Amino acid sequence: MSHKENIDAILNSVERTIVGKREISELSLTALIAGGHVLLEDVPGVGKTVMVKSLAASIGAEFKRIQFTPDLLPSDVLGVSIYNPQQMEFEFRPGPIVGNIILADEINRTSPKTQAALLEGMEESSITIDGKTLQLPRPFFVMATQNPIEYEGTYPLPEAQMDRFLFKLKMGYPTRDEEIEVLSRSESQIPPELTAPAITLDDLLELQVAATDVVVDATVKSYIVDCATATRLHASVYLGVSPRGSLGLMKACQAFALIKGRNYVTPDDVQYLLPYAFSHRIILHPDAEYSGHSIETVLIDVLAKVRVPVIRTNSV
Amino acid sequence: MKDVRIDKWLVILLYILAYFMTIEWLKPVAELTDTGHISHFYGFIGMSLLFGLLRIPGWIVVPIKVIYITLSLQFVFRGNEWLTSEALKMTVSDIAQSLTFIWSGQWMEISYLFRTGLFFILLWMLAYLIRFWIEYRKSIMLFFGMTVVFLSVVDTFTTFDASFAILRVMVIGLLLLGLLFPLRLSAKTKTKLPIRSYFNVIAPLGGLLLFVAIVAVLVPVKEPAWPDPVPFIRSAAGLGDSGNGQGISKVGYDPDDTQLGGPFQPDDSIVFEAYVDSRQYWRMETKNTYTSKGWIQFSSEEYPESQGSFSGVIGGQVLIPPRQRAEVEMYEPLPILPYPYGLQDLQTIEGLLYKQEIDSGKLTLNSDEPIDMTYQTEFVPPEYSLKELRETDMASLDSLRFEMDEFLDLPDELPARVNDLAQEVTKSSPSVYQKAQAIERYFGRSGFVYSRDEVAVPKENEDYVDQFLFETKRGYCDNFSSSMVVMLRSVGIPARWVKGFAPGQLNRDDNRDKYYTVTNNQAHSWVEAYMPGIGWMPFEPTIGFNGISNVNFDIEVAKDDEQEQDPIKRPEKKKKEQDQQAAKRKNNQESWLLQIIPEWLRSWVTVSIIAGGAVVVLAVGLYTTRKKWLPRVAVRQSRSKSEGWETFAIQYEQLLKQLNRIGIRKPAGMTLSNYAKEVDRMRGDDIMSTLTVAYEKGLYGQRETQQDWTELRKIWEDLIIETTG
Q1: Which residues in chain A are closer than 8 Å to B697, comparing Cβ atoms?
Q2: Pairing of strands B523-531, B495-501
Q3: What average pLDDT does this structure show over A246-259?
Q4: How much is the CA Rg of chain A, to the nearest whole Å?
């Protein structure tokens, strides 16, 4: 299966640069194939940038990085029209958002106005400047990072904008052995952007199309909906998962099944991806948080309670 | 706020109900101990519960209760001076004395006053317990159950009649249980239940009570299938109920019948053998006076005696006089001779003279020695014309009333319900004969049981017949025959009680001659009733015995009696009946079925109970062992099906159910592959995962996938069969 080979090639290529973190690579690739975006929430220095860079390099995509600061303006992200005196007209200089893979670093450190500029582009795959609509290149994949929100001097992303990310991931620190490996590799490491691409962009687009063909049975669809409903009805939850969340989860499951070499989605895929796809879309009751509930425990609870469909729907 | 008030009212209601339940404990005490001061106890219970309800602190309650107890005791035991200080002094010294008696172990010396005081303290504790049950445990089942048991015991073993009390307790108890349930529920969930939920509980509860009451009223009361255990328990416990001190009697002829009842031990020693062609009842004597406990022969005048020949006191119209002979060989000496009905002549081998008492029919020899010999009788079995029997009317008995006085006499203390029953049984029968027949048949149709052991003896104030007819419904010939005589007399038919022997066992000797062996077991009693214009006629009320009388069906019978009395017309009639039934069946099969099925069930009670029990046992057995045999059935079934996804899905689902049955449960939130891993981890291979992958492919993949169904079936069979071991 050529899809499977392509996927393995990407993952192996990423693994050459990143030590361990196979899970994160897989999830990032899942989001990439599903056409979603990823929010990485972690402290600095755990390899977020390297991850994105190597992913971009492995698919031969154009990689852009935007470092968000409090004084960053929307035009710094989208681009600006400058008057060209020689041609006597305004000339559009595209901003860093026009690229295949964007690393939006520390997104919660900039003002909501700039955040909105990025997030709009993420959702629509196009930007509008001076009345002109510019289609962004495909694939278009944003990997945003944010410091944990407890930190000072941040503008937390509003719920509506959090909803636009398919996954929220946490890198986590490497294990001891992995960290040693990181140190020893750094001596002779070629930069990730210089590694030869494993596949072409066309291959990736083909993968994206293939993912939409992965079968999601009615029972699995109802399982996804049941889980989403369960988050809305859960006693500790103030705001549950939106239908956009269920849709995102289904697409992610399709991509993940493709990565796993299957042409159908199983409830295992749903269970595995659900925490990544749902955790940033839920808001708990304040008192639930004080009484020791966290989003993780709520989701574990939901998964334990919702019945997995194991019998054909036409049989009892 | 509203809810709290409801709770309060509910608790008050509960206390009131509990009060009435407690009162049920005291009522038998009042009746059985004839204390005249039971109201003090009622008041005390009420006061204790009220204090409990109001949660009055102990330092107020205890003095009030102590004062109440003291004053009550003084009122009961000191009479008029109960409010004086003298009485108080006496009470205190009484208590002190009783305490010293207790200390020294002289239990019997304790004064009545002190015992009553202790009873008060017992009630005090009971009130605490009730409070605990209602307010903390919120469950009154224990108290309820104990009350029912207490009342049943009291009802069974004492004179106290608790049948209505039990009904009251059932209603109160069910109400208490129902009302406590929402309280318990709300305590458990720590939530206040809305008012509606109380209605939700009370409405079905009320409905249920109503339903049970209606069913109880409508359903015919079936007699208990087992014998009344009380006499047995009492005799086993040595409760000395026999009264006359006689234990188990031995069966056989006994001239003394003043105290009937009590169990009999069988005795199959032969009394006599009779060479006779047909079954004969062996009459010995009759008795005329019923004493509520037994029978005596009471005569005002000297009996005229007849010698040599027999005077026909036995009635009956002889149509064809076939003179029969009976040769009787006595094995055991009897004071009087048994003889068949219609005796004409008697010859003894020794040529002894005999005499017969006219009124009792006793046949004795003119010798003081008990008879131990062989004698021959000639007799003509009486035959009765049905036509004449049908014409016997009660009016013609009136003229005989004075003459038959001794055969109509009943003890004054005979309970009225015996008479009521006799009237009820006979009310639809027009003639004397039919009335007698109705009573004769009554026993066999009303759940009476023939038994020689576990038969009660009437107590001092009980009537032998009344006890049998209404209490025990269990007995032997004496019970049945005495009851029939008494019932006949209550409706005004002259009747007397006959003793003798039943026909005995038919045998044949070496010459193929018929003879009947009569043992002590055949000692019997039956009934003779006087048919006006005809004479005395024997009846056999005892169930399990064949009748005596020889009725000649000599009349044109009415159509509805045809089947019973006209053997010649029967076949034709039968056919007609069948046709009718067939037609009926066609018309309304359902109602016919509804009629027939209970009829059938009733007539096959034992069989249907056993069959039903067997079916239940089989079903339970199959259900509990289903994990052993269901997979094998499934394997056999699936072998006959074509291979493919559909078959495999059924197989896999059966496997899931089977694993669930043998205890490997899948939590609702667990996926199949994780479950399969769990199962495989237990078993140590990967069969389940293999099957699961194949199943998932079909289930979630929604495709008719190409898989190795044969291989899958093989491993499925292995796995599912393995689970049965």
Answers
A1: 264
A2: antiparallel
A3: 92
A4: 20
Between B133-147, B200-214, B247-261, B422-436, the lowest mean confidence (pLDDT) is in: B247-261
pLDDT at B1 over 50: no
CA distance B181 to chain A (A): 27
Same domain, B544 and B563: no
In degrees, rounded to 5, the angle at the alpha carbon of residue A23 between the alpha carbons of residues A19 and A26 is 105
Q: What is the pLDDT of residues B418-460, one digit of tens each?
A: 888 888 888 888 888 888 888 888 888 777 888 877 777 787 7
CA distance B722 to B725: 6
Q: In the predicted model, what is the mean pLDDT of residues B205-220?
A: 74
Please, which residues have CB within 8 angstroms of residue A80's CB and are 6 or more apart in sequence? A92, A93, A95, A129
Give the domain-ending residue among B535, B570, B587: B587
Does the structure show a pLDDT above 80 at A6? yes
Question: Would the pLDDT of B33 be above 50?
Answer: yes
Within a domain: B606: no
> B600: pLDDT confidence band, cut at 50, 70 and 90?
low
Q: What does each C-alpha distance from B431 to B211, B385, B396, B452, B552 come to in angstroms?
A: 44, 14, 11, 34, 17
Q: Are B546 and B280 in contact (CB under 8 A)?
A: no
Q: What are B270-289's pLDDT values in tens digits?
A: 888 888 877 788 888 888 88
Cα distances from B88 to residues B64, B73, B101, B102, in angstroms, run 16, 10, 20, 21
Query: Given this model, what pLDDT does residue A250 score?
Result: 93
Q: What is the pLDDT of residue A253?
A: 93
Written out in words, the top-level CATH class of the domain with range A213-305 is mainly alpha
Kindly tell me if the per-residue pLDDT of B304 is higher than 70. no
Interface ipTM = 0.80
Calculate mean pLDDT across residues B105-121: 82
Helices (H), B219-270: 230-236
pLDDT digits (tens, 9 = 90+) for A60-112: 888 888 888 888 888 888 888 888 888 888 877 888 888 888 888 888 888 88
User: Any alpha helices (H) in chain A, and if so which ranges?
Assistant: 2-17, 22-34, 48-58, 74-78, 112-124, 159-162, 176-186, 201-212, 218-233, 243-259, 267-278, 286-290, 295-305
Minimal Cα distance from A305: which residue of B? Answer: B669
CATH homologous superfamily of A2-187 equals: P-loop containing nucleotide triphosphate hydrolases (3.40.50.300)
Which residue in chain B has the smallest CA separation from A269?
B671
CA nearest A271 in B: which residue? B671
Q: Which of residues 195-234 of A touch B (CB under 8 A)?
A: 215, 217, 219-220
- Measured N-to-C along each axis, helices B709-724 and B687-701 cross at an angle, to the nearest 10 degrees, of 120
Contacts of A220 in chain B (CB under 8 A): 700
Between the two ends of chain A, the Cα-to-Cα distance in Å is 36
The answer to whether residues B449 and B565 belong to one domain is no
Spatial distance between the Cα atoms of A131 and B356, rounded to a whole number of angstroms? 144
Question: Residue B87 falls within a domain, yes or no?
Answer: yes
Domain co-membership, B6 together with B133: yes
Cβ atoms of residues B389 and B437 within 8 Å = no
Q: Is A304 on the interface with B (CB under 8 A)?
A: yes
Please judge whether B653 and A303 are an interchain contact, meaning their C-beta atoms are less than 8 angstroms apart.
no
Q: Domain span at residue B714? A: 625-724
Q: Are residues B633 and B574 in the same domain?
A: no
For residue B702, list chain A residues with Cβ-Cβ distance below 8 A: 215, 217, 264
Domain boundaries, chain A: 2-187, 213-305
Question: Least CB-CB distance to B699: which of A263, A306, A312?
Answer: A312
Q: Report CB contact under 8 Å: A264, B656.
A: no
Residue recorded with tokens 């005390």: B44
CA–CA distance, A300 with B667 (Å, rounded to integer): 13
